[in-house]
């Protein structure tokens, strides 16, 4: 635990919502992450499943823990929940704060290949290697390494899907709220991938769930996708869940798409359906 500093700890739903900071070797900066320990983590005999939650554009590790109300469901199911930040922090790169959909708080959970981003913007390796290993090692007394799932929202939904599809077997369950499903084909993705990866579109496909699922040959997996019908980013074609569903169908990968009439892109929508997502993860991770 030497490498972790406790930033905050609050009792909620019988467990503890904590935030830690640590020096990241992948990102070369200090990072915060949240971790919720349900009541079962205290003095329990058995190790608990973990679900990672990835937030969207403009977020830190705080939005989900303060707005979604997920702790009630994590406590019911006895699931530990880990939430990383959305980009490197405190690293000054020219242009990193010029727009809300690129640079700071918009790391897209990928490893940048293009200068000047490639030195720090390595959120893919940070999440799937460094933070993943850190959580398993630092909390080994309560974490079951064989029962790890992942979920996310918007850019974080994209992150959850590509992390699962690129690392077969690492995450046993995956779900997403309003994910960016086909970044190669939407304005957010085109901007981020051009900036972080360059102009070679064959490199883009390596970080695009709709492209990756076409070649998925890992353990059986069902993708749970949730989408608000009144989400302006959905109607503006930033999210494109239908493209992912079509690719899943042609690749034979089971997918569930829940369209929620009248709901927008906000945490009001996430708070409404987060319980269903915890039921989904619990069913798989606790089977
Ligand atoms: N700043 C954007 C909105 C960004 C946005 O909706 N971000 C989502 C993720 S893509 C979010 O979770 N925002 C933080 C929050 O609602 O707490 C706008 O003005 O249109």
TrEMBL record:
Subcellular localization(s) per the UniProt record: Cytoplasm
Catalytic reaction equation(s): S-formylglutathione + H2O = formate + glutathione + H(+)
Major subcellular site: cytoplasm
Pfam families: Esterase (PF00756)
Keyword Hydrolase set for record: yes
Enzyme type, top EC level: hydrolase
InterPro entries cross-referenced by the UniProt entry: AB_hydrolase_fold, Esterase-like, S-formylglutathione_hydrol
Keywords in alphabetical order: Cytoplasm, Hydrolase, Serine esterase
Documented EC number(s): 3.1.2.12
SUPFAM superfamilies per UniProt: alpha/beta-Hydrolases
Function: Serine hydrolase involved in the detoxification of formaldehyde.
Family: Belongs to the esterase D family.
Record-given protein name: S-formylglutathione hydrolase
Organism, as annotated: Plutella xylostella (Diamondback moth)
């Amino acid at each position: 635990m030497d490498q972790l500093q406790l930033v905050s700890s609050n009792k909620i739903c019988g467990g503890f919502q904590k935030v830690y900071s640590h020096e990241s070797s992948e990102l070369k900066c200090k990072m915060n992450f949240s971790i919720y320990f349900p009541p079962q983590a205290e003095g329990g005999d058995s190790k608990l499943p973990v679900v990672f939650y990835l937030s969207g554009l403009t977020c830190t590790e705080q939005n989900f823990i303060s707005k979604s109300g997920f702790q009630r469901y994590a406590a019911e199911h006895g699931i530990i929940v880990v939430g990383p930040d959305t980009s490197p922090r405190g690293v000054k790169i020219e242009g990193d704060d010029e727009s809300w959909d690129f640079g700071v708080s918009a790391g897209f959970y990928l490893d940048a290949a293009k200068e000047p981003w490639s030195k720090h913007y390595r959120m893919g390796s940070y999440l799937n290697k460094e933070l993943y290993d850190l959580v398993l090692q630092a909390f080994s007394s309560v974490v079951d390494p064989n029962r790890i799932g992942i979920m996310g929202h918007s850019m974080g939904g994209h992150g959850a899907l590509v992390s699962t599809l690129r690392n077969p077997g690492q995450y046993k369950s995956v779900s997403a709220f309003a994910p960016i499903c086909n970044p190669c084909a939407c304005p957010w993705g085109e901007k981020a991938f051009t900036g972080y990866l360059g102009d070679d579109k064959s490199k883009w496909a390596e970080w695009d769930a709709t492209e990756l699922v076409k070649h998925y040959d890992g353990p059986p997996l069902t993708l749970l996708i949730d989408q608000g019908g009144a989400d302006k980013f959905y109607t503006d074609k930033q999210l494109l869940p239908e493209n992912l569903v079509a690719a899943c169908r042609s690749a034979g990968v089971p997918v569930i798409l829940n369209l929620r009439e009248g709901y927008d892109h906000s945490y009001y929508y996430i708070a409404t359906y987060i319980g269903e997502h915890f039921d989904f993860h619990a069913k798989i991770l606790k089977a």
